[in-house]
């Protein structure tokens, strides 16, 4: 029997944890939706992205509809009285002029919208509607089932079989997510046509996997890992169940290593490595895919301590309900050491703290200019920080100048714990890179001399891990104006002599000329104003320097 069949889901909803979860959803529905009719999505907000670069206003309304859908699809398993409001929500989504986001469906050449574009969100919407219809079947009225089928055919099947899309050549999470959404739509709603598109769907999945490092590292961070690999897993979860076939790619070395990536990059209960456009913390709705990863690959990874919250706008909520009673004991790997060779990222989970350092280059996917950056965590608190993703705007993606300006901060090297050399920050481009000079059990050495827009005779950093902290040693030669060693924290530091106190962590320097603290405000990925502090050890008019900083708890 299909895992997420109505019968299996109904059985899960009647367990103690299932009832507790559904009661939580009922309360959420009463407070947020029961007396709030579905409003039309306004074109004035839709066009804001192309007028001012704002994505938030329209997307908040768009995603809230999907969240309403996710809540109601589970409640419709629990109690038939929710079928009617579920049908109203489905009807409203079928009425939308486009399922794509405005950032993804505008043709800049012709200044027109491509309303039947297949993007991440259109493919996800299609997949969810197809799954709801497949699971609930005759619980839904015949007219709603016809509307779903018609919308899926017009917006997905007809478009996919007569056009090509950007994700057909992409190698990042778009290849996985869009191929998954389209593929599952076919498997559920148009199985008789699946063989027509099978090779194209599989090609998208293979491009995604082959683009990952052979050691499984995702340069975009955990949130993008679970997004891309989560949907990769979701597709093959449905495919293997409905066809009885397990493709060889699922047991390949790169896939096994990609699963290990999660075990290593989960730093604690809901805390993740925030490199590039990753996020330090997550209540990511794609976390609903993690039980599928566990089930498909025999992994044992727990997300957010197993705490099931309200499903997010992309959550595949039937899975959350089905796996509600799953018990998983392991939250990532509590102590681990892993070096991702191609991306030059070191993750050291020690008993008393966690350390992450990064080399790589400045043209990676969802890139930040962060060569040589590092982070230090203890008990889920990030003391030396990587700020993660900023608010996504038009310019954040479509303008290199704006993305790496000082105003954007999180993408500029000023927002990372890396040196400022002769007054210069790092530059965007693949030609700006790090080289790993040496790596042993307790230390790693990076050459950072090629990360800046001028020739530097020598600039190296050595990170040596000790029992209760990290020693960071810089050596530079051939400077003209001097160098500033910058360390970023979200905790306001206290300066005393050559020491800086960040919470319970001390920073002491072997040599000090001048210390200053700068306060930065930026808009984070959730469009929330956030404050960061830069601790600058300034050495002006120096041509050579060899200095050591001790970070101790």
Describe the structure.
This protein is α+β, with helices and mostly antiparallel strands and 553 residues long. It has 2 domains: 317 residues, Alpha/alpha barrel (Glycosyltransferase), CATH 1.50.10; 217 residues, Beta-galactosidase, Chain A, domain 5, CATH 2.70.98.70. It contains 16 helices and 23 strands. A hairpin with a 2-residue loop joins β3 and β4. α5 runs antiparallel to α6, α6 packs parallel to α8 and α7 runs parallel beside α9.
Quick synopsis:
The chain has 553 residues and is an alpha+beta fold. The chain has helices at residues 6-13, 16-32, 43-46, 48-51, 56-78, 83-95, 120-136, 142-162, 173-189, 194-211, 222-243, 253-265, 290-297, 317-322, 394-398, 400-403, and strands spanning 106-107, 112-113, 266-268, 271-272, 336-340, 345-349, 354-358, 361-362, 374-378, 381-384, 420-421, 429-433, 435-439, 443-447, 458-466, 469-477, 482-489, 494-496, 499-502, 505-509, 514-523, 529-540, 545-552.
Outline type: elongated
* Structure classification: alpha+beta
Radius of gyration: 25 Å
In order across it, which strands form the biggest sheet? 13-14-15-16-23-20-19-18
Number of domains: 2
Percent helix, as a range, is 25-40%
Proportion of residues in β-strands: 15-25%
CATH class descriptor name of the largest domain: Mainly Alpha
Oligomer: single chain
Write down how many β-strands occur, each being a DSSP E stretch of 2 or more residues: 23
The overall pLDDT average reads 90
Largest sheet: 8 strands, antiparallel
What's the end-to-end separation, in Å? 54 Å
Provide a count of the helices.
16
Let me know the CATH homologous superfamily of the largest domain. Answer: Chondroitin AC/alginate lyase
The CATH architecture of the largest domain would be Alpha/alpha barrel
């Amino acid at each position: 029997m299909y895992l997420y069949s109505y019968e299996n889901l109904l059985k899960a909803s009647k367990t103690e944890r299932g009832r507790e979860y559904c009661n939580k959803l009922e309360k959420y529905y009463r407070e947020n939706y029961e007396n709030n009719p579905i409003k039309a999505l306004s074109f004035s907000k839709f066009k804001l992205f192309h007028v001012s670069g704002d994505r938030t206003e329209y997307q908040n309304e768009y995603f809230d509809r999907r969240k309403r859908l996710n809540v109601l699809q589970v409640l419709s398993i629990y109690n038939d009285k929710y079928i009617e409001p579920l049908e109203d929500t489905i009807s409203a989504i079928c009425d939308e002029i486009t399922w794509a986001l405005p950032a993804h469906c505008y043709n800049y050449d012709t200044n027109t919208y491509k309303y039947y574009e297949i993007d991440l969100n259109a493919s996800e919407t299609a997949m969810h509607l197809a799954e709801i219809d497949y699971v609930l079947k005759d619980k839904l009225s015949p007219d709603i089932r016809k509307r779903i089928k018609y919308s899926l055919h017009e917006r997905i099947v007809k478009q996919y079989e007569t056009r090509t899309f950007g994700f057909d050549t992409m190698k990042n999470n778009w290849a996985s997510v869009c191929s998954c959404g389209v593929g599952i739509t076919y498997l559920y709603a148009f199985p008789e046509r699946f063989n027509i598109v099978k090779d194209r769907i599989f090609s998208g999945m293979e491009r995604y996997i082959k683009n990952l490092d052979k050691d499984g590292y995702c340069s975009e961070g955990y949130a993008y890992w679970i997004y891309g690999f989560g949907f990769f897993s979701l597709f093959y979860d449905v495919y293997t169940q409905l066809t009885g076939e397990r493709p060889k790619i699922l047991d390949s070395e790169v896939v096994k290593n990609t699963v290990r990536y999660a075990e290593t990059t989960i730093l604690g209960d809901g805390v993740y490595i925030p490199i590039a456009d990753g996020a330090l913390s997550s209540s990511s709705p794609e976390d609903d895919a993690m039980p599928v990863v566990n089930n498909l690959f025999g992994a044992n990874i727990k997300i957010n301590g197993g705490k099931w919250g309200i499903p997010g706008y992309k959550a595949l909520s039937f899975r959350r309900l089905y796996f509600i009673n799953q018990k998983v004991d392991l939250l990532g790997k509590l102590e681990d050491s892993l070096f991702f060779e191609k991306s030059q990222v070191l993750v050291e989970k020690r008993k008393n703290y966690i350390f992450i350092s990064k080399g790589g280059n400045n043209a990676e996917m969802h890139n930040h200019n962060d060569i040589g950056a590092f982070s230090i965590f203890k008990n889920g608190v990030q003391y030396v920080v990587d700020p993660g993703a900023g608010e996504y705007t038009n310019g954040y993606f479509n303008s290199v100048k704006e993305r790496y300006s000082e105003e954007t901060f999180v993408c500029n090297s000023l927002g990372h714990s890396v040196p400022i050399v002769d007054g210069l920050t790092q530059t965007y481009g693949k030609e700006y890179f790090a080289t790993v000079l040496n790596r042993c059990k307790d230390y790693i050495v990076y050459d950072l001399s090629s990360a800046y827009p001028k020739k530097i005779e020598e600039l190296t950093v050595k990170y040596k891990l000790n029992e209760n902290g990290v020693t960071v040693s810089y050596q530079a030669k051939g400077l003209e104006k001097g160098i500033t060693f910058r360390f970023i924290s979200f905790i306001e530091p206290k300066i005393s002599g050559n020491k800086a106190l960040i919470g319970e962590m001390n920073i002491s320097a072997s040599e000090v000329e001048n210390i200053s603290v700068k306060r930065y405000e930026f808009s984070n990925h959730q469009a929330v104003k956030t404050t960061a502090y830069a601790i600058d050890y300034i050495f002006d008019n120096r041509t050579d320097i060899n200095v050591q900083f001790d970070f101790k708890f």
